[in-house]
Structure to design on (1079 residues):
């Protein structure tokens, strides 16, 4: 059972809500993978995914998402001229925003538009032939996996993958892939996430030493056992790969967080949600807790990449917004009371979709607020990051794979040109991801911008307009 | 101890298990399917209106109008969840009696989280599971059922979860004198001898085989490390703690390892302890019990007769009932019943509480047919009775049973036959207002006939609005029947099976009229042994019960679930043999399960290729 932490001297000053917290840098003390390329200052990327497209211009439906005009955006412009647009909820962070219209998913889905979109959004890979339909999978790794395997600390090689919402089974996780058809499971419970992040960090010194000693003994035995199994010459390739994955997972290096941990009331609140199993009326609460954890994870350099999936594959959440319970979001996105092709029309479904877009914008704004809470010697963790609000579809009714709504915030250490809204001109979205990978400090073999993420058939390159000169 | 079926996560629609093909639905439509690139699985849960890129006329969008044909799988990589060979034809079935060779299988299938939980409970003789696996990162859905052990892996995140879980169990053990007394009873000799005795006895159960002398020595070292970091525990308890902590993270615990290596006649016979584990995880989802260990010690399991004795015994245990229940719960998509919703104006007699009742009915019926009646597949498909309460009885139009509990009621054999005419299946495959012919047909094809149905194309428009006086059947036919692009799949395969259920409304109630006209539930379907006509679901159920397709499909699914892996071409002969016996009426479902434990595929493994 989770236990209350005895905050010893290892716990530093807490930041109360809204007050920035000083973060000591202990880079030199943490084992770091030697990588071919990497920034001097760590940079972070998080992808927050909404489902079912957004209420943007399509057919007879008017534009309600993006700003009116391409070009610079300011707090003033977003909160006055574009006050009727969903992105206006982010006015406070206008100078840090980079909104990118005009990218598309390159490949068709395979029997299910939601699944095909979900497969591609963070991978830019083809959709599997088999399995198909709602069970289709991506044919390559996702961007968070790429970042984590190149830049994460040795003690924690995987990207953080968290999830809010029901896991109904039609499509659950969609975002994060270790490799072709190798979908990564996400953690739904914030208290679990926190406990895994903190590990043994908060225990008394002697206890930590004992635990480490025991773990070392055990790990030595485990490695011997694994090696004896792996030395058999008669293993299939699949078995070899699985055993190798397991062997590589045996880690002696402990996660040691040397950063400020959340105040007790936040811990208590997370623990109180320990029974969360996807209830609709807790969605926003859980999302905000995950946002808090992601910001903490970056501030503690626990991971360089994270994903937050809001809702399952076609998000049937009945959102509770301003005290009103909405119809199922998936149905709203179809504009009818049905998950299929026909049903009674939902009154003002378009307005409701727009309202849900605003709600997602508010949740994203909370993430930005938390990232801004942690200061560095040159700014905030948000400045060192790129937070990306995205969607596995462009629109709900048409299930369009065009104009995927990418709303980035944070300059990734000055790499990205923020305070603007651009149109990428209808390019495949692998170029968006190449730009993000470059922003967090990765390069290609020649030491230039990453240009080859995703399916190799796609045209390589970045989106120049995203990059600060 | 085992997760009750109603707590299972909903499983997405499985692909038809594969390399061996089944019903060839008429040469021309098969040719059409092959020409368009057939693959398994279909979009079952309502979201047919998928899209291709470039759709929707957004101003300024480039690349409009790409057709929605799926790409071919040029970059398809090896997939443990899928079948080995997809280039199969109907001819495979005709080679019944020939040896197929053994299927290629993993030597390291990983325990599922449920199996981890059950194994720990049994290892420690606990009354309840610890629940520690709730903190484990989940396994993404893979394959037709949720237990494809070959697809399960130990990732970096899960390894950390196993570490924490093992430490939690170890702390629990060390701090509980009762558990300690059970797994490390006081014995003769000094502390070293006691440690040794504990490691030998506990290790044999944790690793599901006797430890070698070298392994015992190595674990004694672990014990001593534990003693040297006792924390708050007594030395002996501290030693036990570290051994438990180590063993629960060991690959010998986490995987059901098939180490046997001696090849004879192209086959490798599994050892007694390996067979014991294979049997207990298949039938009970947990480690072997004491009696199974005794049989393995006495080398009784390598003899099929000895294995049968154990399998027969184990089938009578409640844990085997849970395995049968879970299999059917997933095969019949009983988890979808919880999503049933009917319009309150059109169906004032609908009560959302009925959803759970319908699930209970189906599960109780399965239990009664399989265990109570020792019935076969034909009984499952055609028996004209069910187990209902008063609310459900009203839907069937029969008298309520006496008392509040579910009880057996006989149904009108002219109206009801087995699982296909139960209100749960019918309601779950219907909308809030009207039936869903297409999804009832797709369910039949995928779950019960194993047709090689491809997924729908990406841009499927919804059903057109109804025309005055048009029945639902007519409307569906207009949209997808002859002369439309859907004719190939819908005309020959999907719709005919869906039409058979038009005598049952969206809540499963008997109806004889639709849009003012008498219901037309007649159609014909190309079974493997010929095209057969029928009028209504009762006749269809009878045809299914006599068809080679349904028997073969059921056995293939049972094999997939029982063996916790996708079926392969090499399983063809076994599947055919069991299906033939089932079709001949000489094999109950219980006996089917026993047959699966007597097969070469169970008792042997194939040498690794290459």
């Amino acid at each position: 059972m989770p236990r209350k932490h005895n905050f010893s001297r290892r716990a530093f000053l807490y930041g109360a809500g809204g007050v920035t917290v000083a973060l000591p840098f202990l880079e030199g003390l943490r084992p770091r993978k030697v990588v071919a390329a990497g920034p001097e200052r760590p940079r972070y990327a998080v992808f927050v995914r909404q489902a079912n497209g957004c209420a943007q211009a399509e057919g007879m439906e008017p534009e309600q998402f993006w700003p009116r005009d391409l070009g610079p955006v300011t707090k003033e412009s977003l909160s006055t001229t574009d006050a009727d647009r969903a992105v206006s909820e982010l006015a406070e962070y206008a100078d840090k925003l980079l909104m990118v219209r005009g990218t598309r998913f390159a490949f068709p889905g395979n029997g299910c538009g939601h699944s095909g979109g979900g497969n591609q959004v963070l991978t830019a890979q083809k959709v599997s032939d088999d399995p198909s339909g709602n069970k289709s999978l991506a044919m390559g790794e996702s961007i968070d996996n790429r970042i984590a395997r190149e830049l994460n600390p040795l003690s924690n090689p995987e990207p953080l993958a968290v999830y809010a919402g029901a896991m109904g089974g039609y499509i659950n996780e969609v975002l994060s892939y270790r490799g072709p058809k190798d979908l990564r499971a996400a953690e739904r419970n914030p208290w679990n996430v926190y406990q895994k992040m903190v590990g043994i960090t908060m225990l008394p010194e002697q206890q930590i030493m004992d635990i480490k000693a025991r773990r070392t003994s055990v790990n030595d035995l485990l490695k011997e056992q694994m090696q004896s199994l792996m030395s058999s010459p008669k293993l299939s390739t699949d078995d070899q790969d699985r055993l190798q994955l397991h062997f590589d997972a045996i880690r002696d290096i402990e996660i040691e967080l040397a950063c400020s941990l959340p105040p007790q009331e936040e811990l208590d609140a997370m623990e109180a949600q320990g029974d969360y199993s996807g209830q609709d009326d807790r969605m926003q609460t859980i999302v905000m807790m995950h946002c808090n954890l992601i910001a903490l994870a970056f501030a503690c350099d626990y991971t360089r990449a994270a994903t937050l999936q809001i809702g399952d594959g076609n998000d049937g959440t009945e959102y509770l917004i301003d005290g009103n319970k909405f119809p199922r979001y998936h149905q709203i996105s179809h504009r009818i009371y049905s998950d299929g092709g026909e049903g009674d029309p939902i009154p003002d479904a378009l307005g409701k979709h727009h309202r849900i877009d605003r709600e997602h914008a508010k949740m994203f704004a909370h993430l930005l607020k938390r990232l801004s809470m942690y200061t560095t010697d040159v700014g905030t963790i948000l400045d060192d990051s790129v937070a990306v609000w995205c969607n596995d579809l462009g629109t709900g009714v048409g299930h369009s794979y065009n104009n995927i709504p990418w709303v980035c915030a944070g300059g990734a250490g000055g790499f990205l040109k923020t305070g603007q809204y651009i149109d990428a001109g209808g390019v495949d979205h692998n170029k968006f991801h190449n730009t993000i990978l470059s922003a967090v400090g990765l390069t290609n073999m020649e030491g230039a911008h990453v240009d080859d993420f995703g399916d190799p058939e796609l045209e390589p390159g970045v989106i120049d307009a995203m990059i600060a000169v | 101890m085992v997760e009750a079926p109603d707590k299972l996560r909903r499983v997405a629609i499985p692909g038809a298990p594969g390399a061996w093909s089944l019903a060839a639905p008429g040469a021309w439509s098969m040719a059409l399917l092959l020409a368009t690139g057939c693959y398994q699985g279909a979009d079952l849960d309502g979201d047919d209106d998928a899209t291709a890129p470039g759709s929707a006329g957004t101003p300024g969008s480039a690349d409009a109008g790409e057709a929605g044909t799926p790409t071919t799988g040029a970059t398809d990589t090896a997939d443990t969840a899928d079948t080995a060979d997809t280039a199969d034809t109907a001819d495979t079935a005709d080679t019944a009696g020939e040896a197929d060779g053994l299927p290629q299988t993993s030597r390291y299938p990983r325990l599922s989280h449920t199996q981890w939980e059950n194994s720990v409970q049994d290892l420690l003789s606990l009354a309840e599971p610890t629940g520690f696996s709730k903190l484990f990162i989940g396994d993404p859905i893979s394959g037709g059922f949720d237990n494809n052990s070959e697809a399960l892996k130990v990732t970096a995140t899960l390894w950390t979860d196993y570490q924490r879980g093992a430490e939690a169990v170890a702390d629990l053990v060390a701090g509980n004198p009762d558990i300690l007394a059970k797994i490390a009873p006081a014995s003769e000799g000094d502390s070293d001898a006691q440690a040794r005795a504990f490691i030998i006895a506990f290790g044999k159960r944790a690793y599901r085989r006797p430890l070698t002398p070298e392994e015992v020595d190595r674990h004694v070292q672990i014990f001593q490390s534990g003693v040297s970091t006792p924390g708050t525990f007594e030395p002996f308890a501290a030693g036990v703690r570290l051994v438990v902590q180590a063993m629960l993270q060991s690959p010998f615990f986490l995987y059901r390892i098939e180490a046997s290596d001696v090849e004879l006649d192209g086959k490798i016979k599994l050892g007694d302890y390996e067979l014991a584990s294979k049997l207990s995880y298949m039938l009970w989802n947990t480690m072997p019990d004491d009696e199974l260990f005794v049989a393995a010690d006495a080398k009784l399991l390598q003899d099929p007769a000895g294995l049968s004795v154990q399998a027969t015994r184990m089938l009578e245990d409640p844990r085997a009932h849970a395995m049968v229940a879970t299999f059917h719960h997933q095969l019949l998509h009983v988890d979808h019943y919880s999503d049933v919703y009917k319009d309150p104006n059109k169906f004032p007699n609908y009560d959302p509480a009925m959803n759970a009742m319908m699930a209970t009915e189906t599960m109780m019926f399965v239990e009664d047919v399989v265990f109570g009646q020792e019935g076969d597949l034909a009984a499952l498909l055609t028996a004209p009775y069910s187990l209902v309460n008063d609310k459900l009885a009203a839907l069937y139009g029969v008298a309520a049973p006496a008392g509040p509990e579910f009880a057996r009621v006989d149904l009108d054999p002219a109206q009801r036959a087995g699982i296909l005419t139960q209100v749960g299946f019918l309601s779950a495959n219907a909308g809030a207002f009207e039936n869903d012919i297409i999804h009832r047909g797709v369910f039949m094809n995928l779950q019960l006939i194993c047709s090689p149905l491809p997924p729908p194309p990406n841009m499927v428009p919804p059903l057109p609005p109804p025309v005055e006086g048009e029945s639902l059947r007519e409307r569906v036919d207009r949209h997808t029947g002859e002369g439309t692009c859907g004719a190939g799949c819908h005309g020959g395969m999907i719709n005919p099976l869906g039409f058979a259920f038009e005598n049952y409304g969206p809540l499963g109630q008997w109806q004889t009229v639709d849009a003012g006209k008498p219901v037309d539930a007649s159609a014909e379907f190309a079974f493997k042994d010929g095209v057969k006509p029928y009028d209504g679901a009762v006749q269809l159920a009878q045809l299914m019960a006599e068809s080679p397709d349904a028997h073969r499909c059921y056995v293939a699914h049972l094999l997939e679930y029982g063996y916790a892996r996708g079926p392969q071409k090499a399983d063809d002969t076994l599947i055919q043999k069991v299906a033939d016996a089932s079709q001949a009426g000489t094999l109950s479902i219980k006996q089917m399960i026993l047959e699966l434990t007597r097969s070469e595929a169970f008792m042997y493994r194939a040498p690794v290729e290459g």
